[in-house]
């Protein structure tokens, strides 16, 4: 079974008697360990009565039964000042295994293998066809015409062009397909290099968090998992045989405590395995000698003390998605061991199997084999060299040949012959060289640092974690406070409340601002004192879809509580390479005003002029605006208030109608009378530009005088804010009397004639004064 299997299972070589353990990492920085209490008899545990080991055994048992030992988190191994140090020591030990699991899982290596194969096959097929059909064009004309060389090259290309093209196409397609899966998730980093850092940081944090949660969960659930896998409590007879041996071995290794010992029913395979909190042996171990059992337990105690299972769990947690997928084919091949089954399983799961075999396992198995050597050395330092030798000799008899990759790169255990060879290395005799043995145990468990929490390495790790946490917390706080969609909406309405037109416009997307053109006039309308912004603004909800969002806003305008929806868009560019701002993606509402020469004003700001036929469009931000027309001596225009709600596209209600001033009628009549008086002052029969005349009938007028006997009543009709049409109805016409004499054939004849007339023309404002200009309508 592969090491990445999340469930506790025997080793694939469990049929070979001997100590086994999965995923052994390097030992952590340890704590001072007392030397073993004394020698033990080669055949079994130390006997009471003067033997120092007996006292050590008793002290170990007392320590194991003490309440303090039971209070330790998850019954962790002794020598670690806290559970944090224990977990940290296991987590940071095997960086190669963690790196391999991280790269293989979080960079989608199985998917990259699939893309590589399909890309290679596609381009390989194309290269095969193209190389076989277009080989004539592959040789340049200069070489093709060369004697001997040309025919030789043509023959080579004609007969091997397809093969070469196929191989080249497959290699290129495989490379492109593999790199495509690795590069595509980082395509945003091409525009913003900071995305590469943030993406990697996010992946590392996610992988570390998953690995940590998985490790803690495995440690806490270990009793239940072992119970499900078949481990049970020892019976009275089994405990009487094994517990004294375990206590003696713990004492010889300088451990002030020991793990919980469980057993599984397997009368054939003599096997043992160390977990984070337990050591599990098989019932077949009971058939071994005490010396062999003591060597086996010493071996497993070293694994337990150095926290190898913690490292194993953390690496499995980092690669948990890959581990879970790999568990299915591993179980199928283990449950149904047949070549046909293996072939079908490989056909469906080959990317995962190859990733595990050639990426993940090689990165970790080197440390696993080193842990086995370390555990063997611990058994020797405990005084059980011969028992260890006996177990390894028995294991060697079951070994068969394996492939070079499995044996040299992926093997969980070194070859038994090499382990036996290391047993022959000289070590201190625990019965006579206690100080040297203590130093050896001290080196085995990683040094004599009693303050592992305060060690430089621990301080660096803790400092880095604190720095990352503070940085992450600060970035998260900044993101929450300044770079959420709610923040953009809040800044938008806050700028409107402050009459800050430029700042409000800055909250719009660049595309919207570009479409507005010159925004100075719009900003001045918001800055004016007559502008009334929405009040009591609150964001009641935000629906986000990727880089787009819709915010629901509640507000008060003109005394009414209203709601509106505002679309938002997140910027492609990032502030400081980390934060993406949100902007309002709604264009200002459009107010259509009448065109003409006399411009209107919005909040006192002159509106742009336009053609009288089409009018002019004025953009407005949310709020209340006062639209007013021109006022002069002739007319006045009552202002109107226009309300613009957020998200509105067009605004109506600004149809302004000028009205005639009451005093304009009297002023117009005075102007008309002055005009008529000027006409009457002309002593001619036909006053120039006047509404009345005397018809002579062909006679010569010798002397004539005009007198206005009744002034006409005029009517004014506004044709614009500064012009009005002047007219006279038939009933309101005036009259003028002409007196004088005519000279004819019969002499001079006096006359008196009354003429009725009406007045028409245009009354306009010139330099603030009403001026009448006679003329037709």
UniProtKB/TrEMBL annotation:
InterPro entries: HtpX_protease, Peptidase_M48. The keyword Cytoplasm does not apply. The keyword Cell cycle does not apply. GO terms for molecular function: metal ion binding; metalloendopeptidase activity. GO terms for biological process: proteolysis. Residues 1-74 are annotated as: Disordered. This is Peptidase M48 domain-containing protein. It comes from Micromonospora wenchangensis.
């Amino acid at each position: 079974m592969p090491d990445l299997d999340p469930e506790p299972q025997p080793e694939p070589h469990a049929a070979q008697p001997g100590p086994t353990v999965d995923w052994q990492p390097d030992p952590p920085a340890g704590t001072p360990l007392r030397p073993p209490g004394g020698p033990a008899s080669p055949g079994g545990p130390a006997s009471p009565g003067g033997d120092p080991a007996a006292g050590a055994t008793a002290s170990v048992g007392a320590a194991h039964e003490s309440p303090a030992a039971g209070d330790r988190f998850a019954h962790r191994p002794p020598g670690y000042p806290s559970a944090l140090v224990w977990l940290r020591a296991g987590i940071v030990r095997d960086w190669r295994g963690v790196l391999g699991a991280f790269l293989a899982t979080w960079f989608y290596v199985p998917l990259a293998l699939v893309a590589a194969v399909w890309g290679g096959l596609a381009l390989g097929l194309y290269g095969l066809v193209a190389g076989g059909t277009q080989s004539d064009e592959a040789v340049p004309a200069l070489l093709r015409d060369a004697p001997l060389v040309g025919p030789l090259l043509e023959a080579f290309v004609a007969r091997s062009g397809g093969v070469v093209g196929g191989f080249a196409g497959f290699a290129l397609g495989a490379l492109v397909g593999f790199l495509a899966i690795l590069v595509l998730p980082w395509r945003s980093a091409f525009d913003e290099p900071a995305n590469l850092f943030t993406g990697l940081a996010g992946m590392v944090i996610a992988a570390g968090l998953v690995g940590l949660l998985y490790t803690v969960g495995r440690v806490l659930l270990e009793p239940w998992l072992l119970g499900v896998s078949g481990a049970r409590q020892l019976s009275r007879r089994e405990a009487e045989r094994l517990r004294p041996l375990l206590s003696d071995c713990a004492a010889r290794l300088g451990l002030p405590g020991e793990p919980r010992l469980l057993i599984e029913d397997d009368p054939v395979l003599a096997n043992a395995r160390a977990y984070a909190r337990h050591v599990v042996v098989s019932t077949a171990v009971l058939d071994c000698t005490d010396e062999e059992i003591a060597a086996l337990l010493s071996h497993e105690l070293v694994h337990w003390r150095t926290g190898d299972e913690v490292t194993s769990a953390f690496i499995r947690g980092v690669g948990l998605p890959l581990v879970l997928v790999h568990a299915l084919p591993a179980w199928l091949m283990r449950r149904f061991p047949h070549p046909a089954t293996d072939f079908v399983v490989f056909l469906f799961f080959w990317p995962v199997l190859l990733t595990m075999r050639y990426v993940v396992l090689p990165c970790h198995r080197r440390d696993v084999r080193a842990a086995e050597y370390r555990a063997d050395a611990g058994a020797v330092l405990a005084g059980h060299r011969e028992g260890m030798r006996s177990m390894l000799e028995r294991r060697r008899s079951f070994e068969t040949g394996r492939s070079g990759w499995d044996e040299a790169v992926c093997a969980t255990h070194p070859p038994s012959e090499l382990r036996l060879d290391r047993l022959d290395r000289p070590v201190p005799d625990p019965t006579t060289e206690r100080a040297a043995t203590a130093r050896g145990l001290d080196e085995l468990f990683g040094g004599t640092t009693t303050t592992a929490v305060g060690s430089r390495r621990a301080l660096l790790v803790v400092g880095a974690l604190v720095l990352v946490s503070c940085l992450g917390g600060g970035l998260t706080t900044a993101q929450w406070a300044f770079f959420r969609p709610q923040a953009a909406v809040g800044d938008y309405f806050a700028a409107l409340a402050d009459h800050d037109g430029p700042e409000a416009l800055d909250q719009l997307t660049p595309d919207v601002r570009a479409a507005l053109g010159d925004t100075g006039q719009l900003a001045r309308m918001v800055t004016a004192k007559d502008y009334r912004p929405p009040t009591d603004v609150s964001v009641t909800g935000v629906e986000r879809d990727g880089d787009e969002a819709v915010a629901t806003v509640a507000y008060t305008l003109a005394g009414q509580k209203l709601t509106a929806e505002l679309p938002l868009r997140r910027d492609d560019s990032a502030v400081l390479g980390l934060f993406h701002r949100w902007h309002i993606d709604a264009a200002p509402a459009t107010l259509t005003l009448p065109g003409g020469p006399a411009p209107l004003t919005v909040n006192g700001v002159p509106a742009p002029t336009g053609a009288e036929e089409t009018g002019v469009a004025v953009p407005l931000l949310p709020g209340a605006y006062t639209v007013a027309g021109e006022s002069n001596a002739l007319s006045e225009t009552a202002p109107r208030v226009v309300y613009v709600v957020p998200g509105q596209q067009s605004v109506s209600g600004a149809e302004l109608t000028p009205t005639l001033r009451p005093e304009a009628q009297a002023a117009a009549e005075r102007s008309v009378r002055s005009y008529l008086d000027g006409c009457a002052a002309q002593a001619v029969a036909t006053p120039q530009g006047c509404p009345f005349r005397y018809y002579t009938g062909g006679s010569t007028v010798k002397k004539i005088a005009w007198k206005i006997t009744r002034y006409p009543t005029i009517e004014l009709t506004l044709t614009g804010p500064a012009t009005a049409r002047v007219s006279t109805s038939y009933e309101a016409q005036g009259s003028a009397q002409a007196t004088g004499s005519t000279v004819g054939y019969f002499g001079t004849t006096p006359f008196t004639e009354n003429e009725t007339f009406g007045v028409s023309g245009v009354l306009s404002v010139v330099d603030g004064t009403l001026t009448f200009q006679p003329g037709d309508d």
